[in-house]
Amino acid sequence: MKTQLTGMSLSQLTDWVKTQGEPGFRARQINDWLKKGADFEEMRNLPANLIEKIKPIASAQPAQVMERHVSKLDGTEKLLFSLEDGHTVEGVIMRYRHGITFCLSTQVGCAMGCAFCASTLNGKLRDLTTGEMASMCYLANRLTAPVPLSNLVLMGSGEPLDNTREVFAFLHHITSPDSLNIGARHISLSTCGLPDQMRLLAQEGLQVTLSVSLHAPNDQIRQSIMPIARAHSMDAVLDACRYYIQQTGRRVVFEYALIRDVNDSLDNAQELASRLRGMQCHVNLIPLNDVKERALRASTKAQVERFLNRLTELNISATVRRQLGDDIFGACGQLRAQRLKTPLMEEGRS
Ligand code: SAH
Description:
The chain is α/β, with parallel strands linked by helices. It is built from 12 helices and 14 strands.
């Protein structure tokens, strides 16, 4: 595999450049291009012989934009990236009033097996590297220019805490002034709830927002839709959340996809509120994106409203997440799943 330059810190890149027999100052020049999303061909202030030398052994952008789908409804962009080994992963650019958010993947596929999620349909193929994740951010940032990305969410395909080594390195990298300098408070990491790794994240000294995919008010319902819940009880997950809050001083966000007749009754809302009482948290209610491959349907709008109202009455801070990009396979893993089934030519691009 080629050396991925995008994941390196400036000092690592400087060392690497020196091992190639080049002066260390070239590292900053290269890095300036990398974070603009540029490939070797564009690095015009570097000597041609240097580029010729490193090109066969290093990659400037280990991810490439392969497809770009722009929503006619709200300007959301779904990107399909190709990686050097031929795998593909998704990313989504979302435009809000307060800025631009990029949602990125952390693995190719996912091993967690959640019943409602398209990312996990073919299991996990591999972890993404720091360099690939950084490259996706650089390319997305290039596409939104002149407005830079202001927020990142690790909510694409994959379980970020099943890839802690690369994901933690990525978080340190992307928040650095030598990279995109995105404040940790502007980054959300979403997990299906791996308590040990949540504690490790708390100890990383980063101020990222921890989002936890709860999706149920008790173990029984949680186990019926999330296999990982058989390994970790809700109590264990909530304990790890309390630890995160205590260590970082940040509130935790709970994601709760409302699934018709599975987890959307008012009793479920009541039980959820009692489990979360006293915690510094916010509940994000997500109208389920129907996944055809799975026989689970979204709750009705009226039921979502009733569920939200019940939580609010019980003094639990909660909101319903706006749905973006419905016309471009906005939900996790949907575009990739679609692409694995239908070759590009047959479908007609949007
Ligand atoms: N593995 C991580 C992050 C990726 S998924 C996690 O589990 O949190 C990002 C969010 O989208 C999670 O809350 C996930 O449960 C949710 N999600 C997946 N499929 C969905 C669907 N069909 N409808 C609504 N939300 C979905």
